[in-house]
Design brief:
The structure is a homodimer. By secondary structure, chain A is of the alpha/beta class. Chain A has ten helices and five strands.
Chain lengths: ~210, ~210
DNA sequence: GTAAAAAAGGGGAAAAACACCCTTTTTACA
DNA sequence: TGTAAAAAGGGTGTTTTTCCCCTTTTTTAC
Protein backbone atom coordinates (compact mmCIF):
# COMPACT_ATOMS: atom_id res chain seq x y z
CA UNK A 1 0.00 0.00 0.00
CA UNK A 2 1.17 3.47 -0.83
CA UNK A 3 2.42 5.72 1.93
CA UNK A 4 0.27 8.80 2.37
CA UNK A 5 1.31 12.43 2.40
CA UNK A 6 -0.41 15.67 3.31
CA UNK A 7 1.12 18.86 1.92
CA UNK A 8 0.67 22.05 3.93
CA UNK A 9 1.79 25.06 1.91
CA UNK A 10 0.22 28.34 0.92
CA UNK A 11 2.06 28.40 -2.40
CA UNK A 12 -0.65 26.56 -4.28
CA UNK A 13 1.31 26.32 -7.45
CA UNK A 14 4.27 24.76 -5.72
CA UNK A 15 2.08 22.39 -3.76
CA UNK A 16 0.30 21.18 -6.87
CA UNK A 17 3.53 20.68 -8.78
CA UNK A 18 4.90 18.74 -5.88
CA UNK A 19 1.75 16.64 -5.97
CA UNK A 20 2.52 15.97 -9.63
CA UNK A 21 6.04 14.91 -8.80
CA UNK A 22 4.87 12.59 -6.05
CA UNK A 23 2.40 10.99 -8.46
CA UNK A 24 5.41 9.71 -10.39
CA UNK A 25 6.62 7.85 -7.29
CA UNK A 26 5.29 4.31 -6.91
CA UNK A 27 5.24 4.27 -3.13
CA UNK A 28 3.70 7.60 -2.19
CA UNK A 29 0.46 9.45 -2.76
CA UNK A 30 -0.86 12.83 -1.66
CA UNK A 31 -4.05 12.68 0.40
CA UNK A 32 -4.68 16.39 0.85
CA UNK A 33 -3.22 19.78 0.15
CA UNK A 34 -3.81 22.42 2.82
CA UNK A 35 -3.07 26.11 2.58
CA UNK A 36 -2.03 26.59 6.20
CA UNK A 37 -1.49 24.84 9.49
CA UNK A 38 -4.99 25.57 10.73
CA UNK A 39 -6.48 23.45 7.97
CA UNK A 40 -4.26 20.58 9.07
CA UNK A 41 -5.38 21.05 12.66
CA UNK A 42 -9.00 21.04 11.50
CA UNK A 43 -8.34 17.83 9.62
CA UNK A 44 -7.09 16.14 12.79
CA UNK A 45 -9.84 17.67 14.92
CA UNK A 46 -12.36 16.30 12.46
CA UNK A 47 -11.23 12.86 13.57
CA UNK A 48 -9.57 12.04 10.29
CA UNK A 49 -6.43 9.92 10.41
CA UNK A 50 -3.04 11.49 9.86
CA UNK A 51 -0.92 10.66 6.84
CA UNK A 52 2.37 8.82 7.00
CA UNK A 53 4.18 12.10 6.42
CA UNK A 54 3.16 15.75 6.70
CA UNK A 55 5.15 18.10 4.48
CA UNK A 56 5.15 21.42 6.24
CA UNK A 57 6.00 24.81 4.83
CA UNK A 58 7.41 27.31 7.35
CA UNK A 59 6.07 30.67 6.26
CA UNK A 60 2.31 30.48 5.97
CA UNK A 61 -0.61 32.73 6.86
CA UNK A 62 -2.97 31.96 9.78
CA UNK A 63 -0.87 29.21 11.40
CA UNK A 64 2.72 28.87 10.29
CA UNK A 65 5.00 25.85 10.29
CA UNK A 66 6.47 26.45 13.72
CA UNK A 67 3.09 26.77 15.39
CA UNK A 68 1.76 23.77 13.52
CA UNK A 69 4.75 21.68 14.52
CA UNK A 70 4.25 22.65 18.14
CA UNK A 71 0.62 21.66 17.91
CA UNK A 72 1.53 18.33 16.34
CA UNK A 73 4.13 17.60 19.02
CA UNK A 74 1.55 18.33 21.70
CA UNK A 75 -1.39 16.47 20.15
CA UNK A 76 0.01 13.89 17.78
CA UNK A 77 3.60 13.33 18.85
CA UNK A 78 3.78 10.19 16.71
CA UNK A 79 2.93 12.10 13.53
CA UNK A 80 5.91 12.23 11.22
CA UNK A 81 6.48 15.59 9.59
CA UNK A 82 9.11 17.06 7.29
CA UNK A 83 9.74 20.77 7.03
CA UNK A 84 9.89 21.96 3.45
CA UNK A 85 10.89 25.55 3.13
CA UNK A 86 12.66 28.26 1.21
CA UNK A 87 14.19 29.63 4.42
CA UNK A 88 17.69 28.45 5.17
CA UNK A 89 17.38 29.81 8.69
CA UNK A 90 19.27 28.06 11.42
CA UNK A 91 16.83 29.10 14.11
CA UNK A 92 13.87 27.75 12.22
CA UNK A 93 15.65 24.49 11.57
CA UNK A 94 16.56 23.99 15.18
CA UNK A 95 13.12 24.92 16.45
CA UNK A 96 11.44 22.57 14.04
CA UNK A 97 13.75 19.70 14.95
CA UNK A 98 13.28 20.33 18.66
CA UNK A 99 9.55 20.09 18.09
CA UNK A 100 9.93 16.64 16.66
CA UNK A 101 10.16 17.45 12.98
CA UNK A 102 11.84 14.55 11.23
CA UNK A 103 13.89 16.62 8.82
CA UNK A 104 14.18 19.93 7.02
CA UNK A 105 14.27 20.16 3.26
CA UNK A 106 15.04 23.18 1.14
CA UNK A 107 12.64 23.65 -1.72
CA UNK A 108 15.44 23.59 -4.25
CA UNK A 109 16.21 19.97 -3.40
CA UNK A 110 16.67 17.53 -6.29
CA UNK A 111 13.71 15.20 -6.92
CA UNK A 112 15.94 12.16 -6.33
CA UNK A 113 17.06 13.48 -3.00
CA UNK A 114 13.46 14.40 -2.15
CA UNK A 115 12.35 10.82 -2.77
CA UNK A 116 15.25 9.56 -0.71
CA UNK A 117 14.20 11.88 2.12
CA UNK A 118 10.65 10.55 2.06
CA UNK A 119 11.86 6.97 2.11
CA UNK A 120 14.31 7.76 4.83
CA UNK A 121 11.57 9.19 7.05
CA UNK A 122 9.46 6.09 6.48
CA UNK A 123 12.31 3.66 7.05
CA UNK A 124 14.55 5.34 9.59
CA UNK A 125 12.11 7.82 11.07
CA UNK A 126 14.03 10.93 10.04
CA UNK A 127 16.14 12.57 7.37
CA UNK A 128 19.04 14.72 8.37
CA UNK A 129 20.24 16.77 5.47
CA UNK A 130 23.54 18.59 5.57
CA UNK A 131 21.62 21.77 6.37
CA UNK A 132 20.04 20.21 9.42
CA UNK A 133 23.17 18.74 10.90
CA UNK A 134 25.16 21.87 10.26
CA UNK A 135 22.50 24.02 11.84
CA UNK A 136 22.31 21.73 14.82
CA UNK A 137 26.02 21.81 15.28
CA UNK A 138 26.39 25.55 14.77
CA UNK A 139 23.26 26.46 16.65
CA UNK A 140 24.04 24.41 19.71
CA UNK A 141 24.21 26.99 22.49
CA UNK A 142 26.04 24.74 24.90
CA UNK A 143 28.52 23.41 22.34
CA UNK A 144 27.64 19.94 23.50
CA UNK A 145 27.93 18.44 20.07
CA UNK A 146 29.97 21.00 18.20
CA UNK A 147 32.45 18.38 17.15
CA UNK A 148 29.99 15.84 15.88
CA UNK A 149 30.08 15.23 12.17
CA UNK A 150 27.07 14.71 9.96
CA UNK A 151 27.62 10.99 9.69
CA UNK A 152 28.15 10.65 13.40
CA UNK A 153 24.84 12.35 14.07
CA UNK A 154 23.17 10.04 11.63
CA UNK A 155 24.76 7.00 13.20
CA UNK A 156 23.75 8.24 16.64
CA UNK A 157 20.12 8.13 15.61
CA UNK A 158 20.43 4.64 14.27
CA UNK A 159 22.11 3.56 17.49
CA UNK A 160 18.87 4.46 19.29
CA UNK A 161 17.19 1.34 18.00
CA UNK A 162 17.27 -2.37 18.52
CA UNK A 163 19.32 -2.86 15.39
CA UNK A 164 22.74 -4.41 15.85
CA UNK A 165 25.64 -2.37 14.57
CA UNK A 166 25.83 -4.75 11.65
CA UNK A 167 22.25 -3.94 10.76
CA UNK A 168 22.94 -0.22 11.17
CA UNK A 169 25.83 -0.63 8.76
CA UNK A 170 23.44 -2.18 6.25
CA UNK A 171 20.96 0.62 6.78
CA UNK A 172 23.61 3.25 6.16
CA UNK A 173 25.25 1.29 3.34
CA UNK A 174 28.57 1.16 5.12
CA UNK A 175 30.93 -1.49 6.33
CA UNK A 176 30.47 -2.57 9.94
CA UNK A 177 34.04 -1.43 10.47
CA UNK A 178 33.13 2.11 9.56
CA UNK A 179 30.30 1.99 12.07
CA UNK A 180 32.86 0.77 14.56
CA UNK A 181 34.80 3.94 13.90
CA UNK A 182 31.80 6.21 14.46
CA UNK A 183 31.03 4.45 17.68
CA UNK A 184 34.52 4.84 19.06
CA UNK A 185 34.68 8.43 17.98
CA UNK A 186 31.36 9.21 19.66
CA UNK A 187 32.30 7.37 22.83
CA UNK A 188 35.26 9.70 23.14
CA UNK A 189 33.52 12.92 22.15
CA UNK A 190 30.46 12.35 24.29
CA UNK A 191 32.41 10.82 27.15
CA UNK A 192 30.34 7.68 27.31
CA UNK A 193 31.49 4.12 27.32
CA UNK A 194 28.58 2.08 26.03
CA UNK A 195 25.82 2.14 23.49
CA UNK A 196 23.41 2.78 26.34
CA UNK A 197 25.37 5.96 27.01
CA UNK A 198 24.90 7.01 23.39
CA UNK A 199 21.15 6.44 23.60
CA UNK A 200 20.83 8.40 26.84
CA UNK A 201 22.87 11.28 25.43
CA UNK A 202 20.81 11.41 22.26
CA UNK A 203 17.55 11.47 24.17
CA UNK A 204 18.72 14.00 26.75
CA UNK A 205 19.80 16.34 23.99
CA UNK A 206 16.74 15.92 21.82
CA UNK A 207 18.79 14.37 19.04
CA UNK A 208 16.45 11.43 19.11
CA UNK A 209 12.70 11.75 19.48
CA UNK A 210 11.40 9.09 21.84
CA UNK B 1 30.13 16.39 52.95
CA UNK B 2 26.63 15.76 54.19
CA UNK B 3 23.81 15.47 51.68
CA UNK B 4 21.24 18.19 52.14
CA UNK B 5 17.49 17.87 52.57
CA UNK B 6 14.59 20.29 52.51
CA UNK B 7 11.38 19.16 54.19
CA UNK B 8 8.11 20.54 52.87
CA UNK B 9 5.26 19.64 55.19
CA UNK B 10 2.55 21.57 56.98
CA UNK B 11 2.57 19.20 59.94
CA UNK B 12 5.18 21.14 61.85
CA UNK B 13 5.46 18.61 64.60
CA UNK B 14 6.09 15.79 62.18
CA UNK B 15 8.58 17.84 60.18
CA UNK B 16 10.56 18.75 63.27
CA UNK B 17 10.62 15.19 64.56
CA UNK B 18 11.80 14.06 61.18
CA UNK B 19 14.51 16.67 61.39
CA UNK B 20 15.50 15.14 64.72
CA UNK B 21 15.68 11.70 63.19
CA UNK B 22 17.78 12.91 60.28
CA UNK B 23 20.19 14.55 62.73
CA UNK B 24 21.06 11.06 63.92
CA UNK B 25 22.17 10.11 60.39
CA UNK B 26 25.81 10.81 59.61
CA UNK B 27 25.33 11.54 55.92
CA UNK B 28 22.31 13.82 55.84
CA UNK B 29 21.28 17.18 57.20
CA UNK B 30 18.14 19.29 56.93
CA UNK B 31 18.66 22.73 55.38
CA UNK B 32 15.17 24.09 55.70
CA UNK B 33 11.66 23.18 56.75
CA UNK B 34 8.87 24.74 54.70
CA UNK B 35 5.17 24.66 55.49
CA UNK B 36 3.97 24.41 51.88
CA UNK B 37 5.08 24.19 48.31
CA UNK B 38 4.95 27.93 47.75
CA UNK B 39 7.70 28.46 50.29
CA UNK B 40 9.86 26.00 48.38
CA UNK B 41 9.14 27.83 45.13
CA UNK B 42 10.07 31.10 46.82
CA UNK B 43 13.31 29.51 47.98
CA UNK B 44 14.23 28.59 44.42
CA UNK B 45 13.04 31.91 43.03
CA UNK B 46 15.25 33.65 45.55
CA UNK B 47 18.17 32.12 43.70
CA UNK B 48 19.08 29.76 46.48
CA UNK B 49 20.46 26.35 45.50
CA UNK B 50 18.28 23.27 45.80
CA UNK B 51 19.06 20.52 48.29
CA UNK B 52 20.11 17.02 47.31
CA UNK B 53 16.65 15.78 48.17
CA UNK B 54 13.29 17.49 48.69
CA UNK B 55 10.91 15.60 50.96
CA UNK B 56 7.45 16.55 49.84
CA UNK B 57 4.18 16.07 51.67
CA UNK B 58 1.13 15.63 49.44
CA UNK B 59 -1.69 17.35 51.30
CA UNK B 60 -0.67 20.90 52.12
CA UNK B 61 -2.35 24.30 52.09
CA UNK B 62 -1.51 26.97 49.49
CA UNK B 63 0.47 24.74 47.10
CA UNK B 64 0.20 21.01 47.56
CA UNK B 65 2.63 18.25 46.70
CA UNK B 66 1.24 17.57 43.24
CA UNK B 67 1.42 21.22 42.19
CA UNK B 68 4.86 21.59 43.68
CA UNK B 69 6.13 18.50 41.89
CA UNK B 70 4.77 19.83 38.60
CA UNK B 71 6.53 23.11 39.21
CA UNK B 72 9.79 21.33 40.01
CA UNK B 73 9.56 19.18 36.89
CA UNK B 74 9.03 22.30 34.82
CA UNK B 75 11.66 24.51 36.42
CA UNK B 76 14.21 22.24 38.07
CA UNK B 77 13.85 18.87 36.39
CA UNK B 78 17.14 17.72 37.90
CA UNK B 79 15.91 18.31 41.44
CA UNK B 80 15.47 15.03 43.26
CA UNK B 81 12.33 14.79 45.35
CA UNK B 82 10.68 12.10 47.43
CA UNK B 83 6.99 12.12 48.26
CA UNK B 84 6.32 11.55 51.91
CA UNK B 85 2.69 11.18 52.71
CA UNK B 86 -0.06 9.63 54.78
CA UNK B 87 -2.17 9.00 51.68
CA UNK B 88 -1.87 5.55 50.21
CA UNK B 89 -3.62 6.75 47.08
CA UNK B 90 -2.70 5.12 43.81
CA UNK B 91 -3.58 8.16 41.74
CA UNK B 92 -1.37 10.42 43.82
CA UNK B 93 1.48 7.98 43.60
CA UNK B 94 1.28 7.67 39.85
CA UNK B 95 0.92 11.40 39.30
CA UNK B 96 3.89 12.14 41.49
CA UNK B 97 6.07 9.55 39.75
CA UNK B 98 5.02 10.80 36.32
CA UNK B 99 6.13 14.24 37.39
CA UNK B 100 9.58 12.99 38.14
CA UNK B 101 9.27 12.21 41.81
CA UNK B 102 11.96 9.72 42.75
CA UNK B 103 9.89 7.70 45.16
CA UNK B 104 6.87 7.69 47.44
CA UNK B 105 7.17 6.96 51.14
CA UNK B 106 4.38 6.36 53.59
CA UNK B 107 4.83 8.24 56.83
CA UNK B 108 4.65 5.07 58.87
CA UNK B 109 7.86 3.81 57.28
CA UNK B 110 10.54 2.38 59.58
CA UNK B 111 13.50 4.70 60.25
CA UNK B 112 15.88 2.10 58.79
CA UNK B 113 13.90 1.87 55.61
CA UNK B 114 13.66 5.66 55.49
CA UNK B 115 17.44 5.97 55.64
CA UNK B 116 17.76 3.33 52.96
CA UNK B 117 15.33 5.27 50.77
CA UNK B 118 17.39 8.45 51.15
CA UNK B 119 20.59 6.63 50.30
CA UNK B 120 18.93 4.91 47.39
CA UNK B 121 17.80 8.23 45.92
CA UNK B 122 21.32 9.58 46.25
CA UNK B 123 23.00 6.49 44.83
CA UNK B 124 20.54 5.09 42.31
CA UNK B 125 18.46 8.18 41.68
CA UNK B 126 15.21 6.73 42.94
CA UNK B 127 13.53 4.52 45.50
CA UNK B 128 10.68 2.30 44.46
CA UNK B 129 8.85 1.01 47.47
CA UNK B 130 6.36 -1.81 47.18
CA UNK B 131 3.59 0.78 47.25
CA UNK B 132 4.99 2.58 44.26
CA UNK B 133 5.54 -0.42 42.06
CA UNK B 134 2.17 -1.89 42.97
CA UNK B 135 0.44 1.38 42.21
CA UNK B 136 2.27 1.72 38.95
CA UNK B 137 1.33 -1.77 37.91
CA UNK B 138 -2.28 -1.53 39.04
CA UNK B 139 -2.80 2.03 37.92
CA UNK B 140 -1.40 1.58 34.44
CA UNK B 141 -4.34 2.48 32.22
CA UNK B 142 -2.92 0.79 29.16
CA UNK B 143 -1.80 -2.34 30.97
CA UNK B 144 1.57 -1.92 29.37
CA UNK B 145 3.44 -3.15 32.36
CA UNK B 146 0.79 -4.99 34.33
CA UNK B 147 2.92 -8.08 34.54
CA UNK B 148 6.11 -6.44 35.67
CA UNK B 149 7.27 -7.33 39.14
CA UNK B 150 8.82 -4.98 41.64
CA UNK B 151 12.29 -6.34 41.09
CA UNK B 152 11.93 -6.19 37.34
CA UNK B 153 10.95 -2.53 37.55
CA UNK B 154 13.94 -1.87 39.74
CA UNK B 155 16.24 -3.71 37.36
CA UNK B 156 14.75 -1.84 34.42
CA UNK B 157 15.87 1.42 35.97
CA UNK B 158 19.37 0.15 36.53
CA UNK B 159 19.50 -1.05 32.95
CA UNK B 160 19.12 2.59 31.89
CA UNK B 161 22.71 3.30 32.78
CA UNK B 162 26.16 2.54 31.54
CA UNK B 163 26.65 -0.14 34.15
CA UNK B 164 27.23 -3.64 32.86
CA UNK B 165 24.78 -6.26 34.09
CA UNK B 166 27.48 -7.50 36.42
CA UNK B 167 27.70 -4.07 37.96
CA UNK B 168 23.92 -3.87 38.20
CA UNK B 169 23.99 -7.20 40.01
CA UNK B 170 26.45 -5.71 42.49
CA UNK B 171 24.25 -2.65 42.93
CA UNK B 172 21.19 -4.78 43.61
CA UNK B 173 23.11 -7.30 45.69
CA UNK B 174 22.17 -10.16 43.43
CA UNK B 175 23.96 -12.76 41.38
CA UNK B 176 24.57 -11.80 37.75
CA UNK B 177 22.56 -14.87 36.85
CA UNK B 178 19.52 -13.48 38.61
CA UNK B 179 19.88 -10.30 36.62
CA UNK B 180 20.03 -12.51 33.56
CA UNK B 181 16.64 -13.85 34.54
CA UNK B 182 15.10 -10.39 34.91
CA UNK B 183 16.46 -9.40 31.57
CA UNK B 184 15.06 -12.38 29.74
CA UNK B 185 11.74 -12.02 31.47
CA UNK B 186 11.51 -8.35 30.51
CA UNK B 187 12.57 -9.01 26.92
CA UNK B 188 9.60 -11.31 26.60
CA UNK B 189 7.08 -9.17 28.48
CA UNK B 190 8.01 -5.94 26.77
CA UNK B 191 8.58 -7.55 23.40
CA UNK B 192 12.05 -6.16 22.96
CA UNK B 193 15.20 -8.00 22.07
CA UNK B 194 18.02 -5.90 23.39
CA UNK B 195 19.03 -3.73 26.29
CA UNK B 196 18.55 -0.73 24.03
CA UNK B 197 14.94 -1.81 23.68
CA UNK B 198 14.60 -1.88 27.46
CA UNK B 199 15.99 1.63 27.75
CA UNK B 200 13.71 2.98 25.05
CA UNK B 201 10.68 1.33 26.63
CA UNK B 202 11.52 2.71 30.05
CA UNK B 203 11.93 6.22 28.72
CA UNK B 204 8.83 6.12 26.54
CA UNK B 205 6.76 5.03 29.48
CA UNK B 206 8.21 7.45 32.00
CA UNK B 207 9.65 4.62 34.07
CA UNK B 208 13.02 6.28 33.80
CA UNK B 209 13.52 10.02 34.09
CA UNK B 210 16.01 11.20 31.52
C1' DG C 1 -1.75 -25.20 54.80
C1' DT C 2 -0.91 -26.02 50.24
C1' DA C 3 -0.20 -24.59 45.43
C1' DA C 4 1.39 -21.28 42.46
C1' DA C 5 4.24 -17.63 41.38
C1' DA C 6 8.19 -14.91 42.07
C1' DA C 7 12.87 -14.60 43.21
C1' DA C 8 17.37 -16.31 43.07
C1' DG C 9 20.84 -18.93 41.05
C1' DG C 10 23.29 -21.79 37.41
C1' DG C 11 25.97 -24.07 32.78
C1' DG C 12 27.44 -23.52 28.43
C1' DA C 13 27.61 -21.54 23.91
C1' DA C 14 26.93 -18.02 20.33
C1' DA C 15 26.48 -13.30 19.00
C1' DA C 16 27.28 -8.61 19.71
C1' DA C 17 29.77 -4.98 21.57
C1' DC C 18 33.96 -2.93 22.76
C1' DA C 19 39.18 -1.70 22.47
C1' DC C 20 43.19 -0.64 20.27
C1' DC C 21 45.90 -0.89 16.65
C1' DC C 22 46.13 0.52 11.70
C1' DT C 23 45.59 2.23 6.11
C1' DT C 24 43.42 4.41 2.13
C1' DT C 25 40.28 7.53 -0.11
C1' DT C 26 37.59 11.57 -0.33
C1' DT C 27 36.46 16.24 0.83
C1' DA C 28 37.10 20.93 2.32
C1' DC C 29 39.48 25.01 2.14
C1' DA C 30 43.20 28.34 2.63
C1' DT D 1 47.73 22.65 -4.83
C1' DG D 2 48.88 21.03 -0.60
C1' DT D 3 47.28 19.66 3.76
C1' DA D 4 44.13 18.66 7.30
C1' DA D 5 39.97 16.58 8.47
C1' DA D 6 36.40 13.45 7.57
C1' DA D 7 34.91 9.21 5.81
C1' DA D 8 35.57 4.53 4.98
C1' DG D 9 37.64 0.27 5.83
C1' DG D 10 40.58 -3.38 8.19
C1' DG D 11 42.84 -7.10 11.96
C1' DT D 12 42.71 -9.21 16.23
C1' DG D 13 41.44 -9.97 20.58
C1' DT D 14 38.59 -9.35 25.00
C1' DT D 15 34.41 -8.46 27.36
C1' DT D 16 29.60 -8.21 27.53
C1' DT D 17 25.33 -9.49 26.07
C1' DT D 18 22.15 -12.71 24.63
C1' DC D 19 20.01 -17.29 24.38
C1' DC D 20 18.20 -21.67 25.96
C1' DC D 21 18.23 -24.92 28.92
C1' DC D 22 17.75 -25.92 34.16
C1' DT D 23 17.23 -26.13 39.89
C1' DT D 24 16.22 -24.40 44.56
C1' DT D 25 14.32 -21.25 47.79
C1' DT D 26 11.16 -17.77 49.19
C1' DT D 27 6.78 -15.23 48.92
C1' DT D 28 2.22 -14.77 47.97
C1' DA D 29 -2.52 -16.06 47.42
C1' DC D 30 -6.42 -18.76 48.16
Amino acid sequence: MKKTIIIVDDHILFAKSLNGLIKTYDDFEVLEIFKNGQELVDHFNGGKPGPDIVLLDIKMPVKDGLETMEWLKENYPEQKALALSMEHDENYIIKMIKNGCRGYLLKDIEPDEFLYALQSVINSGYYYSDEVSEAMIKGDPEKKFENLTRRELEFLNHACSEMTYKEVAGEMNLSPKTIDGYRESLFEKLEVKSRIGLVLFAIKNDLYQV
